[in-house]
Amino acid sequence: MTAGLTGAVGLSATACGGDDSGSSSETVLKLVAAEAGEASDTGSTQRYWNELVADFRLEHPEIIIDVTTLRWQDANAEVARMVAEGDAPDIAQIGAFADFASAGKLYKADELLPISQLADFIPSLAIAGEMRRVQYGMPFAARIGRLFYNKDLFEDAGLDPDVPPETWEELLEAATALRTTGVPVPFALPLGHDDAAGEALMWMLAGGGGLTDNTGGYTLNSPMNASTFNWLRDELVTPGLTGDRPPGSTTRQQAYSGFAEGTVGMLFADPVLMRQSDRGGVSYGTAELPGSAAPSTSTLGEASWLMAFNQRGHREAIGTFLKYVFTAENVNTFAERWELLPVTTPASQAMQDQEEGQGERLTPFLDALPTATFFPVGKVSWSRVSTLVAQGIGATLEPNSNVPGILADLQEQAETADLGEQPTS
Questions:
Q1: Average pLDDT over the chain, rounded to whole?
Q2: How far from 75 is each of 34, 84, 195, 226, 249, CA to CA, in Å?
Q3: Distance CA 197, CA 65 (A)
């Protein structure tokens, strides 16, 4: 495990942690955050937190924030280890909260933030942060997927660069035209491990399916999902429209790099790709995900979550800090720096109202955020199921694969994992 920088901003030699009863003049809060800077050229997340904490301490010198940043790939596991060893941080910014909430380790969101700030969260995100209708996860930053396409490659292939495909049939026509002009990867399909769950969900949604139903039950083996992966295998993969590398061994990073280098014609991606494309000098457009018969009405939403652990009893100090974190200015500062989407309605509106900055090109992403479909992170089983999907979904696109059988196996394993989520009383 590779850790980032760590430091207690403003920590004095005589400072000590304590409860909120007034027995200590200073309270030290331990914050563990996932590193966002690895995917961009904007520097370490540690710098953001250091700046935020320094400003916060000007108003609240009695609260000291000890910040540690970890690689995104390591953050979930490291926080889980800390909790298991009885050394939980006060606040963590990571990708999952259900295990901790189920074990009674977290404060509820309404124990930390006033109703006015809770109401500011974009509803789809607030709901995604719930477990059994109680919000524990407070969304910190979000991203959604859209179709990205290379306008120059479209024009070279005789396609209108201002008219992206809206249906699978149109996507197939565009991919075929791109291949005819020698584009190595007409459509990048990253279903390699770690990237597969998100890519798979976007295609499921575009085909009218999804991971779960309205009751929260898994629907991996739905007829719509089977039809989607049969189409992908027969129409895109088998004819070679996804390039020489099998989708099951293609990662999102490889797909993004290929697009930024001009060797990928189309792919589903999030706003992070914009900066990479700018650096590569790629003229690109974005659009809604093409659907089986019309543009998809939803797309993948991903978020990182702030959660507060109750082990050390610092509820009041944690709440004071989180109120500051979730001001519109601070939410936007983080989102803009790392090409992410603000998670509150006031911050989203403020970003769109800017005369300069990211607002204009992020507007299509911001507009789609309220209808985005998020991973079922409120299910304890999701951590296990996401791994199962990542490891198994690529097999659906292999030659002569038994798509319904593969999805049925994943469904059975998901339902078995889901038993561990059920209440014990």
A1: 90
A2: 6, 14, 17, 34, 24
A3: 34
Predicted TM-score (pTM) of the model is: 0.88
User: How many Å separate Cα 380 from the centre of its chain?
Assistant: 17
For 176-224, how does the pLDDT look when each residue is reduced to its tens digit (9 = 90+)? 999 999 999 999 999 998 779 999 999 999 999 999 999 999 999 999 9
The DSSP bridge pattern shows strands 146-150 and 138-144 to be unpaired
d(CA 221, CA 20): 50
Cα-to-chain-centroid distance, residue 84: 25
CA-nearest of 333, 355, 360 to 344 is 333
Which residues of 237-329 form beta strands (DSSP E)? 264-269, 284-287, 300-308
Cα end-to-end distance, the chain, whole Å = 37
In sequence order, the 6+-apart residues with CB closer than 8 A to the CB of 79 are 32, 88, 89, 92, 94
List Cβ neighbours of 7 (8 Å cut-off, separation of 6 or more): 46, 50, 66, 67
Q: Which amino acid is at 132?
A: R
Give the pLDDT confidence of 365-377 residue by residue, as tens digits.
999 999 999 999 9
Angle at 362 between CA 328 and CA 266, to 5 degrees: 150
Q: Which residues pair with 264 in a beta bridge?
A: 185
Structure tokens at 246: 């099998």
Q: Are 56 and 31 in contact (CB under 8 A)?
A: no
Q: How many Å apart are CA 152 and CA 191, to the nearest integer? A: 26
Tokens coding 315: 């509820």
Output phi, psi for 346, to 5 deg: -60, -40
Check residue 348 and report its DSSP letter: H
Residue 34 to residue 245: CA distance in whole angstroms: 30
At residue 114, what are phi and psi to the nearest 5 degrees?
-70, 160
Cα 403 to Cα 43, 126, 195, distances in angstroms: 43, 34, 19
Report the distance separating Cα 10 and Cα 279, nearest Å. Answer: 37
- Residue 63 pairs in a beta bridge with 27
Question: What is the C-alpha to C-alpha distance for residues 415 and 422, in angstroms, rounded to an integer?
Answer: 11
